[in-house]
Amino acid sequence: MTTPSSLRRTIPSGARISEWRAPDGWPLRRFDWPAEAGAQRGSILFQGGRGDIVEKYFETFHHWHAQGWSLTWFDWRGQGGSGRITDNPHCGDIEDFADYIGDLRAFWRDWAESATGPKVVMGHSMGGHLILRGLVEGAISPDAAVLIAPMLGLKAPINAGFGEWLARLMGSIGKPTRLAWKANEKPHTTATREALLTHDHERYLDEIYWQTEKPELLLGPPSWRWLIEAFRSTRGLRENPALPLMKVPLLAVIADADRLVDPKAAAAIVGKLPNARTVRFGDESAHEILREVDPVRDRAIAAIDAFLTERAPPL
Question: Where is the Serine aminopeptidase S33 domain (predicted)?
């Protein structure tokens, strides 16, 4: 069911946005929306993808908050309202994906001390990759995890190995921190950015609204260095011998028609986990499953709700 745009485009009452400092002093923008007193079912730490901002997920957060969940999010290093890494504020860059994991580890340690009830982590796209990597490496220890369109493999010409080789070649030609391409979420495509993300025009416009209201949160294409590190990190997770030993209950929601991340790689990796299940969508869903048309979004949320109910029944 579609939430009125007045709620999708307004910071929820009772929520707060603050700054959290990583151990090295790096400023990260943080969002917290505590559950109502007496209705605290549990706590969700939700992490977005590359370039994501929490404002895009207010609609979905309203749903879980109404069910008694406290919601928390922080913008990844180098994007959103967090400190940038290059002189170009619209370039998505990272020196090493281990920096993301370091931030996640430290934030989890602080957050888990005060979070109430069962603790659930959720991650979309790049956030899904980092959540699973954090689980496998022991950076976080939730009661359950949900991955939505997780970036467990990158779309690349020929295959991931060639894509990584090409990214390293391009990164070596000039400054690796330069933009890998000029616009859109994906190079060399005739598909619009909207078509790559969602079939729901109004939900797509929610993001444009927030980019207009808060242009300082806008991020553009990635750097060559980000691409190199993304290929390296996804390869490392795929080859990590600890992957099949990760026993935290996990639900993966995958869009088989996703043109931004590799859904086949995601399904294969999740298939190696001993306590995981998968919900899959076909051509009806693009990359942003939780911001899709109602039939897709409602089915995805219903699957996640059923998974959460097994861990924390409604009060």
Answer: 40-294
